[in-house]
Amino acid sequence: MRTSRTFTTPRTGPGAVPRTAPRTPFRVRLSAVLAAVATVGALVTAGASTAQAADTPLRDLAAAKGKVIGTAVTGSKLTGTYGDLAGAQFSALTPGNAMKWGSVEPTQGTFNWTEADQIVAFAEAHGQQVRGHTLVWHSQNPSWLTNGTWTPAQLSTLLNDHIATEAGRYKGRIAAWDVVNEPFNEDGTYRSTLWYNGLGSGYIAQALTAARAADPAAELYINDYNVEGVNAKSTALYNLVKSLKDSGVPIDGVGLQAHLILGQVPSTLQQNIQRFADLGVDVAITELDVRMALPSDSTKLAQQKADFKAVTAACVAVTRCAGVTVWGFTDSDSWVDSTFPGYGAATPYDANYAPKPAYYGIAEALGGTQSTEGCAATYAITNQWNSGFTGQVTIACSGAALSSWHANWTFGSGQVITNAWNATCTQSGAAVSCANASYNGTVPDGGSVSFGFNASWSGSNTAPTVTLS
Ligand code: XIL
């Protein structure tokens, strides 16, 4: 697992994935129905072009880029629509809670692997990787462990035994383990935890070494939050990884959790991913969500799309970035609402499993074509004289939103655009394509954007059909 990241989905046989999503290529199918009667001085709004998105599953888009797209899941929900989407759209699963120490060993020596086993089995049945999460953490530990009094030697044994037991149980079935979770404070000092306080910072190397022994095929990661951009905390992590590598401690990757706030993708994200890659480790975005102050609205959802797209694009841009995992794929299965009061709507699907603009942000960054489903363009001739005319195109969205657009059409009788405003139009022969200006790429749900142009005509001036892309 440490050398090859190529992921393939079995198409036939026992590992085949039951798909609910359409299998057609991710492109825009346009069926334009513009009524083509251009009456001088009257708006031509008799028809509009509509676009259908053909949703290539995210996992197929990601595979084509050599990336993994994952989601955190709750085992008990893996049926019905939730299970269908988790299986069809994602190429990796991370148990949201099921593999944490408090889940698997609530009483010392008594183990409960039910949910973890279920998730691993589901992943294998759907040709998915599993990200093991997490072996060593300060949180969600069993009370017997946190309330106990332990000598350093006892702590060391507890740590080794836990890793041997859990990583050993799933040996060969876990693509990557978040071996150590959240070891740093914001200022880059080590977090004071059961492990650090008892064993010093050496607990990290110890845990990685034990994990390698338990499952030699698994990629071993250190995972943390607020380490997405270049800052004191990520620099501490960088220095740790460098020193671990220098000392020959097994470390294969760094997880950037990416629990982000709307509009706050760090500008240094890609640079930060690259500097870790340059150390000789992989990087993964492990827990992406983008929370917003509730209620959500179309403007916030458009920003959220841009944020998901930017994070995914930063990973796509760096070869050693293995992939992106979202921390829950539906707003009905997110930790955000209960953890950050007043915030929510942090995932790519709404609570009813409808893909949000954020979903299309991920898809676009993975090479999918922007969906324009739910948006339509209307062409109008607002003025016409003997040799010229003024045209106006209005793009309106309902139940959807765009973050950028192109309006495309073919003139039928030799018309030639002479100038345009509120868009950049290019014409090649009869083919016209107008791109949004820097300030009007966003078409919010329930909103519209217009641009205009002047053109020459002679003979006839039939209104063309406008398509969106
Ligand atoms: C969260 C889970 O999603 C919640 O269900 C649980 O109540 C608390 O933990 N960083 C991590 C994850 O590494 O394990 C956390 O998951 C979110 C923050």
Structural summary, described in words:
The chain has 469 residues and is of the alpha/beta class. The chain has helices at residues 58-64, 80-89, 101-104, 114-125, 143-146, 152-169, 194-199, 202-214, 232-246, 269-278, 298-317, 336-339, 357-365, and strands at 28-32, 49-53, 68-73, 92-95, 129-136, 176-181, 219-224, 253-256, 259-261, 282-293, 321-326, 343-344, 375-384, 388-397, 406-410, 416-421, 423-428, 431-436, 448-456, 467-468. The longest helix is centred in the middle third of the chain and has 20 residues, at 298-317. The two termini are 39 Å apart. Residues 1-54 have low confidence and may be disordered. The structure holds (3S,4R)-3-hydroxy-2-oxopiperidin-4-yl beta-D-xylopyranoside. Residues 96-97, 181, 257, 287, 335 line the site of (3S,4R)-3-hydroxy-2-oxopiperidin-4-yl beta-D-xylopyranoside (XIL).
Supply database-style keywords.
469 residues, alpha/beta, TIM Barrel, Immunoglobulin-like, 28% helix, elongated, binds (3S,4R)-3-hydroxy-2-oxopiperidin-4-yl beta-D-xylopyranoside
Give the SSE map.
Blueprint: E1 28-32, E2 49-53, H1 58-64, E3 68-73, H2 80-89, E4 92-95, H3 101-104, H4 114-125, E5 129-136, H5 143-146, H6 152-169, E6 176-181, H7 194-199, H8 202-214, E7 219-224, H9 232-246, E8 253-256, E9 259-261, H10 269-278, E10 282-293, H11 298-317, E11 321-326, H12 336-339, E12 343-344, H13 357-365, E13 375-384, E14 388-397, E15 406-410, E16 416-421, E17 423-428, E18 431-436, E19 448-456, E20 467-468
Helix pairs in contact: 6-8, 11-13
